[in-house]
């Protein structure tokens, strides 16, 4: 387990993606690992924590995800911009050395037979909730979160700390092509007591 | 139609929400209008443009949306922070003057019998694609975008211009309670030609 990694309570897991970041989706099946970029990921429920992610039929990661019924949704950072762009534009089916070329390194977490991408800000281990109609008609996958972790240098005590962390920890929000916005500054509604 | 409002080509409509903003969902049915805040909205397809949005069973807006089969997904701004928080925490079922109390004003667009929230940065008029299983099991609604518009002071030529617009035009990205992040600065992967 990387230093600075800490578990996130499942009732706070949704907060890792509540602000709409572009994510990396990774999966493992029969000894093959892959990871892809997905701008279309979204929280779906608090308890149990669930999420949706759109994964195109052309994606090799989809084959792995459907084969194993497990995947990881993780939040890449500005420091990983080149990597996030590379794994979203190259396919393992075409470039067998995709992961090395993109500079991706996976790490393991006990009890989860899944590839976790090093350097991300947060990780959500998911179990696929099979919904064949959604998957075939809309490329829409629903995952139930079975474990969540974050790097304490940017997420701690159930909250992001983008405003005090190094700017290279900011999440990426995809526009098109290789263009992204980084997340910005906090704003709060008057009278909010949270 | 408000000044500065311009249509967005449908093939670029997904870009209004691709970076993961919190949105306002409005609907009209039998003469009643309502609007609510939704952090869990996401693009689903490019062509035809489709999106998902999670709308809780306790929401009055959901009743209207299910009744008419139409809704608007719009992108509120930092200038609308108090309004976005207010319409997400008050229900029309409890406060019949919710809209006035939150300072919401609707405008009309020819050919769309829908309430569009003034002051937003972008608007997506949607037709509900009925999926009863998703709606009842997951509170998940799928919309097909039938029209898109943006305020040209912050979105033009198919792109957001947050970095040159007044900071009050930045989109909101919900954390929890009344806490949000504003979208931040653009970053681009090296070698991107888009």
From TrEMBL, chains A, B:
<dbReference type="InterPro" id="IPR012349">
    <property type="entry name" value="Split_barrel_FMN-bd"/>
</dbReference>
<keyword id="KW-0285">Flavoprotein</keyword>
<dbReference type="Pfam" id="PF01613">
    <property type="entry name" value="Flavin_Reduct"/>
</dbReference>
<dbReference type="InterPro" id="IPR052174">
    <property type="entry name" value="Flavoredoxin"/>
</dbReference>
<dbReference type="InterPro" id="IPR002563">
    <property type="entry name" value="Flavin_Rdtase-like_dom"/>
</dbReference>
<protein>
    <submittedName>
        <fullName>Flavin reductase family protein</fullName>
    </submittedName>
</protein>
<dbReference type="GO" id="GO:0016646">
    <property type="term" value="F:oxidoreductase activity, acting on the CH-NH group of donors, NAD or NADP as acceptor"/>
</dbReference>
<feature type="domain" description="Flavin reductase like">
    <location>
        <begin position="15"/>
        <end position="166"/>
    </location>
</feature>
<comment type="similarity">
    <text>Belongs to the flavoredoxin family.</text>
</comment>
């Amino acid at each position: 387990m990387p230093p600075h990694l800490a578990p996130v309570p499942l009732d706070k897991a949704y907060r890792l993606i509540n602000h709409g970041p572009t994510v990396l989706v990774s999966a493992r099946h029969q000894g093959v690992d892959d990871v892809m970029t997905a701008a279309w990921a979204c929280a779906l429920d608090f308890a149990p924590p669930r999420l949706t992610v759109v994964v195109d039929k052309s994606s090799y990661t989809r084959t792995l995800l459907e084969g194993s019924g497990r995947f990881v949704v993780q939040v890449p950072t500005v420091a990983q911009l080149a990597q996030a762009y590379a794994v979203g534009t190259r396919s393992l089916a075409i470039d067998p050395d995709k992961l090395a070329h993109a500079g991706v390194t996976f790490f393991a977490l006990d009890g989860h037979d899944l590839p976790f991408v090093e350097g991300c800000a947060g990780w959500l281990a998911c179990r696929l909730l099979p919904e064949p109609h959604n998957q075939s008609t809309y490329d829409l996958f629903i995952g139930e979160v079975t474990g969540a972790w974050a790097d304490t240098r940017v997420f701690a005590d159930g909250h992001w700390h983008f405003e005090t962390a190094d700017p290279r920890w900011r999440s990426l929000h995809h526009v098109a092509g290789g263009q992204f916005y980084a997340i910005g500054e906090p704003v709060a509604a008057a009278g909010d007591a949270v």
